[in-house]
Amino acid sequence: MVLDNGVANGCWIAASTRPSSEEDNERGGYGLQWRTMGGSEAFAAIGLQGQYIYIDPDTETMVVKLSYFPPGDFVAGDETLVFMGAVSKWSP
To answer: Is residue 28 part of a domain?
Structure first.
C-alpha cells in the first residue's frame, strides 16, 4: 500500500511523506513518522536501534531491514541509508 502511494481516508501517504520543513539534499527531511531522502522521492521509517523500512516509488523498491545497533551508533544508520539507496538503483 505504501509503495503504491496508498490512500486511507484521503491522501495519508502523500501527506505523511512530505517534509514538514525545508528538506536538506544530504540529510533529507521528516514527515509524519517518515524520513525523506534528499533529492529523491524515496522515504524511510527508521525504528529504534536499526529497524528500517526503505521505500523508493521511482524504482518500485521496498527494503526491510531488521537489525540491532548499539544505542547512539549513528554511523551505522547513515551507512544503512546509503546502502538502501544503492540497492534501489541497482538493476540486474
So the answer is: yes
